[in-house]
Amino acid sequence: MADASALSGADNRKRVVFLGPPGAGKGTQAERLAAHLGLPRVSTGDILREAIAQGSPLGQQAAPLIEKGQLVPDELLIGIIRERLLAPDCAPGYVLDGFPRTLGQAESFAGMVRGGAAALLVFDVEVPRAELLRRLSGRRWCPACQATYHLDNKPPRVDSTCDQCGARLIQREDDKEESVARRLDVYDQRTAPLREYYETRSRFHHIDGHRPVETVFQDLRRILQERA
Ligand code: AP5
To answer: What is the pTM assigned to this prediction?
Structure first.
């Protein structure tokens, strides 16, 4: 078992957390911010989809839950994150996308980090529900390299083909109508309470995510600069 104390350390590390409902743009912004900061983006959704593609025991357990829009059990996710954040590339910091998602995950995570939740910079990305539905129904995804597109906002250069690796784009199973409704309900019940949790404990910022990708990103950069 990995030693959680190794996740703490002398602390000029940047630990960024993205909260927000499915389709808010967490992945899109986390990827840009991670590249900007030169830090890894750690996406629990990507880790789980990779495990499913490999057919590993984790993937077999996660697949039916993800398809139905349900959460994967906390103990699995906490173990995955604990191990991932101990990897050398996370030593200078990391940008988390999709974790934590329950109070249990948030509390365990706070216990892994020196300074607890206060050491985290948390962006809560808000987007109206109608726009979330539009984004999720139009999203297309590359099963080979996990790149994300949108039929209207970010179409691939060649129809249905990944710009980065040439694989055929698909719709994620959990972006189908029934799963999306479940995911949004699960978000309201299990993840939205994290706002209150972090608002009082961490460096917390509401972000209006219903703006162009670049405008949202400039906002994140401005906040980081002000905090530098
Ligand atoms: P995960 O992959 O994390 O899915 P999610 O949180 O539902 O988030 P999404 O990937 O749907 O949306 P996003 O906010 O990242 O938006 P994106 O940038 O892609 O998790 C999947 C599943 O895994 C979960 O349902 C659960 O089962 C399981 N899981 C994962 N983590 C877990 C955890 N910690 N605990 C338990 N279970 C867990 O953008 C969406 C679309 O909008 C794209 O097409 C994009 O191009 C477009 N777009 C983005 N920004 C904009 C903008 N500003 N304007 C217009 N379009 C935009």
So the answer is: 0.93
